[in-house]
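Input record (one chain):
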Amino acid sequence: MDGSTHHINGVDSSAIYHGQYKKAAVATDNVNCSAIARDILKRGGSAVDAAIAAMLCVGIQNCHSAGIGGGTVMTVYDAKTGDSIFFNSLSKSSSKAYYGVYGTDEETFYRVSQGATAVAIPGCISSFWTAHQRYGRLKWKELFSPAIRMAAEGIRIEKALAEAIQKQEQNIETLPSFREHFMHPNGILKREGDTLRMPKLAETLRKISKQGRATFYRGEVADMILDDIKGHPDGDSVLTAADFENFRTESSTLLEFDLNGLTFLVPTSPCGGPITCSILKILKGFNLGPDCIKDHHSKLRTYHRILEAFKAAYLQRVGLGDPDYNEEIHEFVKRLISDEFNEEQRKRISNEKAGSSLQFGVDLTPYFPPDDAGTSHISILDEFGNAVSMTSTINYYFGSKIIGRRSGIIFNNGMKNFSIPSKNMNQSDVPEKATFPIAVPSNLMGPNKRPLSSMCPIIVLDKTQPSRSRVQMVIGASGGVRIPTAISWVLINHLWLNMSVEKAIMTPRIHARVGKQLELQVEEDVDEKIVEGLLETMKHVLSSKPYGKPGTVVQIVSKIRCNGIAAASDPRKHGKTNGY
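The corresponding structure, as predicted from the sequence alone:
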């Protein structure tokens, strides 16, 4: 946690991925998309305009992670009024989404993982339109121009997409639409530096740019999408025209909590805000500071406490889900983020050894929640003090593994984020080889429901300042279930351990995974002596499932302890900031 390493998770971090700016800053996971957002701001566009244009760009440049075939969540701060709002446009299940539609438990797991049956209603375009109607300055059509041009004329495949293509080689070889996009005619996988063209997607984006939200949910594009997800050998999607027509982006207030004299704005369930809040409130009582990592003993104890806080918070995911579907979740969240509850959890942490789930008040025997994955995040602060923290996802790499034969859209596999029911809720009867999660009642599949997500777009304010100067930080991450712990690591490093944003992001991370047991996933380049101490002295358990690459990817813009604005794009995904 001293931030001195030059490698993170096996990635060379020597490239310049951070910057200092005077007026406005952008952090995305692609250099081209950060530049597009900067250009939008300089042309007089709003922070929301810049975020939309940048995320449309990401949907081309990093099409394995995000795109208009997925869902989006967005936290917005309006400097003119001092108000904030959350736009929830997570992909949603069909009105016909019942488990009986999918077959047995294991059949359900595999049918919601890949193919047409895995696709949930995409929410991206709805969220973009809703936010733009309220905060946009430039014309809707202008925001699409860069992405349309890239999809039509072709892009240079950058490192992040090239790595994803390599990882998905087997799927690409067996799926005709993927071979067409990601392989050369001679059967060789495309690599970094090769050209990717997506002409059908370019035409779809052009239609949306001219016709707006309506064409995606009840017009020509909607018809194309419904045709794209029918007639598949693994089964047709249960999505209907009515599902698309009835889809809405939900606008709501955010959870607020105070820390270090700052006010954190985070989304509530089904997003990762309550978990992130709980982690930070538990750790607040330990009074962490630079002295906590001054020597090996102090550093080991600090790591141990942080990881125990991760466990204590993550165990509470078993009570989270879509509150519109279960009103009891509102009360569960109130308790989860309360000072009293988190002080109780802090007192349950032993300084000597790792705790069990029962120690933190949760019995993991009946069930354990699903992992989620993928995503892309954008953090923006404009020169007028407006801010956007936006996270978007198609869920897993290349989502459902369907590229629309008419629309060219890569569709999500959002149905995978629901929990799977089990005939026998006793986990001891689940075969060791089973990889599907046992039912978490609050996150069971149902009609017109949003699944549990870890996405957590955050804006941090200093409410003692005038509204135009209040935003102190914009932060969020991609990386599935590990998003709250990745964000927490960076916040701990930056706020409590006084690291610069680049050092806070560079520091290798450990995730406390809640699966069949509590176990650690460790990035490469974490101090070996610390890992040894955690396993041998503190009795933590190392997961057989590696942290993986790129792992978690954090994007941060901060005014804390800097002259102007500091921004950092996580080098794990080879991003780069921009601004002026």
